[in-house]
Amino acid sequence: MKLMDKKLGLVEVQKLEGHTDRVWNVAWNPAADGVLASCSADKTVRIWEQSSLTRSWTCKAVLEGTHTRTVKSLAWSPSGKLLATASFDGTTCVWENFATDSESVSVLQVHESEVKSVSWNASGSLLATCGRDKSVWIWEILPENEFDCAAVLTGHSEDVKMVLWHPTMDVLFSCSYDNTIKIWWSEDEYGDYNCVQTLGELNNGHSSTVWSISFNAAGDKMVTCSDDLTVKIWKTDISMMQTGEGYVPWTHVCTLSGFHDRTIYSVHWSRDGVIASGAGDDTIQLYVDSNSDSVDRPSYKLLLKKEKAHEMDVNSVQWAPDKESRLLASASDDKMVKIWKLASEP
């Protein structure tokens, strides 16, 4: 798809108002079209649903009364039936029936302080959390929504900002205030998770806090962003790992710099190859590989820049999981969630 050849705009579809403090994160339900969750410093999570008639979003549920401090991160299970939320109160909650009685089915309370991020693996059998205590925890989901600690990973030297499972394999990625991305791998289904690679400044990594990680649809490329004002692209040979050849390291492809002029807090790769970034400069920017026909020499370029996408810092950008809609959700310190559409300009 030659997106660079088209004149495209990021069109604001709707503002979702309701949170009373900064909104930290948004997440689309992977199994239900048009369903979005957002979390906030107001201690709540809101579930938004698109009407099939009006095509507009309304708040269908507010999950509140369980977390006692900022809710920083949230993630849907692959089935879309469970929603995990991570809070500065030191707990991770797992919710179901959120459209009706918003029942919290499990509360995991093991981190010594703020929980910063939560992520499900591709099969929904494992949940990862990370926090200010520098640790990463992996939980195994048992019948009756019981959670059993499978591993505690302690390789980072500072606050861990985000955890993210690889989209097809049980390989876990974490990024931190220590400026590194760590990759955790288990040789077999029952083995211990070990740090098999650290991506830092010495191997073309970031020079300041790494805030966010995302993968392309195939899972053979990764994008990261940082307080150093750069977006970095990485690649690996995923086919070798999938055929049991063992761990294959990730290598640096390119660095995108000079686009944002304040901390880049969030990156997300759409299923049709568009990378979105959101930053403290209030902008959302989109990038594509303008040389996608070349296997060896990708060339990522700015597709468009949305000035003043929000009135304050953009904390999260997330593409809808389907390819066709080209919908992007964003969350900001301005208390707003916005829905955008990448569309051809007249």
Describe this structure as you would to a colleague:
Keywords: Repeat, WD repeat. WD repeats lie at residues 16-49, 64-96, 108-141, 153-184, 203-235, 307-346. This protein is an all-beta fold and 346 residues long. 1% of the residues lie in helices and 50% in strands. It has 1 helix and 28 strands. The protein has one helix at 238-242; strands at residues 8-16, 23-28, 35-40, 45-50, 57-63, 71-76, 83-87, 92-96, 103-108, 115-120, 126-131, 136-142, 146-153, 160-165, 172-176, 181-185, 194-199, 210-215, 221-226, 231-235, 251-256, 264-269, 275-279, 284-289, 300-306, 314-319, 327-332, 337-344. β4 (45-50) and β5 form a beta hairpin. The mean pLDDT is 93.
For the structure shown, list the relevant keywords:
346 residues; mainly beta; 4-stranded antiparallel beta sheet; WD40_repeat_CS
Major sheet attributes: 4 strands, antiparallel
Strand order of the largest sheet: 1-28-27-26
Report the helical percentage. Answer: under 10%
Task: Give the beta-strand count.
Answer: 28
Quote the average pLDDT.
93
Number of helices: 1
Give the N-to-C terminal Cα separation. 19 Å
Q: Give the helix/strand class.
A: mainly beta
- What gyration radius follows from the Cα positions, in whole Å? 19 Å
- The ordered string of helix (H) and strand (E) elements is EEEEEEEEEEEEEEEEEEEEHEEEEEEEE
Q: Which overall shape is indicated by the principal axes computed on the Cα atoms?
A: globular
> Which regions are unreliable across 5 or more consecutive residues at pLDDT < 50?
none
Give the percentage of residues in beta strands: over 45%
